[in-house]
Amino acid sequence: MTTESQDVEERELPPPSGPPPVNNVWVYNGKAYDLSDWISKHPGGEFFIGRTKNRDITSIIGSYHKDPDKIARMIERYALGRDALPEDIHPKANAPDFLFKEGFDSWRDTPKYRFDDKNDLLHAVKARLKEPELAARIKRMDRIFDITVAILAVAYFAVQGLRLVQPGWMPLPVFVIAMVLLRSSLAGFGHYAIHRAQKGWNKICVNAFDLNYVALSFVTADGHALLHHPHTQSEVDIKKNVFTMMVQVPRLFRVPVHTVHKFGHTVTGMIMRLLDVCRLTRKVGIKDMYGTWSGALPHFIGSFGVRILLVAELVAFTLAGDFWAWALQFVLTLWISTFLVVASHDFEVDTEELHSDTEDWGVNQLEQAYDLTVVGNRYVDCFLSAGLSSHRVHHVLPFQRSGFANIATEDVVREEAARFGVEWQAPKSFFTDRFPKQIKTYLLQPSVDAQEKNWGFWREHFAPSSLKTCAVYTVQGFTGIGTV
């Protein structure tokens, strides 16, 4: 997330079900490695190594590094001198069982791609990135992106401060629209911060992903960056499953119940979930998760800090007698952002229907992702769409540091894709294409019980079990259980 979902019995980060492997093993290209000593040395941050223990990291290394061959040579010093075995791989990728479909097995269901074909799409694109003029432009666009984010952060606090101090100067409609746009924009920055090296200040900045009330970056960084991106639209891609919990709730009650559920997440639930992460980290051991406490603390400080900020904003507006201004921007931000997050893939389509025959990882990524447009300007849409305006480039080059860098690279990826026979589709409009389909998928379809038991409209909404589902779902939000 990385992150992300839907268990009615347990929190999102309990010890995963099933017997965990006992060995410190990472699998790369079918071989077993022990990277324990590399956790605290990894230039990309401790998190990415510590979290992938007992997983197949072939696609992660191949997609997130400019020169995977160099990485392969480097980790040879940690080779165990044997082929990987099924018991080396945690059956649920060291993640909670409920994130995956029933029967999922990581050893069997993790897609196997080769990244050693020098003639594939990814190698062709990476070769173009080395061109001095393009490399310089990418660095320049990264700087412009970061400067824009700094301006947006100042505006974020200024808009709220002005509404609290001089509400007449910040009318309610202006305030609500500004907050929806700013929260989505800063969450877009958090999206790219997840893909950057988890080092230094970025460990704190990455939590900007939480500002739109949808996710908890501390845990979704795993589900998004390490499970979704390398294995898009496969059974490993937990992003397909994490937004469907609301479909348990009957249609007419879905919007209000889910809204209160997420309000509960905001005020208490996410903090409780963070405490779960603290307990899990203590149980697993700081060395296996982060290498050292100095590597862990910035992640914890940043994540708790943003959660406290969100609660403090609610308290400030309530004490100022302006609770409904806060509530209105909360509801609009929550729902628009929820649909934006799932707008760039066909998550409403079953995995089997999206099967691709290609063995070229880069081609597969282009086939499974959409570019998104909101107002029609890619640079503005980069923020309004939470970073998804140049989304296909982002999926081919997930290591790039900003949405502006992706825009700068788009011509190269399009040109190389044409050489591989991949059609470059026009961006899809969020409002006219994706949003109507998502309304049908997430809000208008009958509840899970109604579909499975063939209930009519009345029973779907007023059967005792349906009312109980609504009550339980509401309470779960306040206890940190449920969707991301």
From TrEMBL:
Residue segments, region Disordered: 1-22
The UniProt record lists the keyword S-adenosyl-L-methionine: no
Taxonomic lineage: Bacteria, Bacillati, Actinomycetota, Actinomycetes, Mycobacteriales
Transmembrane segments: 144-162, 174-194, 296-317, 323-343
Parts forming coiled coils: none
Signal peptide range in chain numbering: none
Alphabetical UniProt keywords: Membrane, Transmembrane, Transmembrane helix
Name of the protein this chain belongs to: Cytochrome b5 domain-containing protein
Species name: Nocardia thailandica
Domain of life of the organism encoding this protein: Bacteria
Biased composition regions of type Acidic residues, renumbered to the chain: 1-10
Residue span(s) of domain Cytochrome b5 heme-binding: 27-84
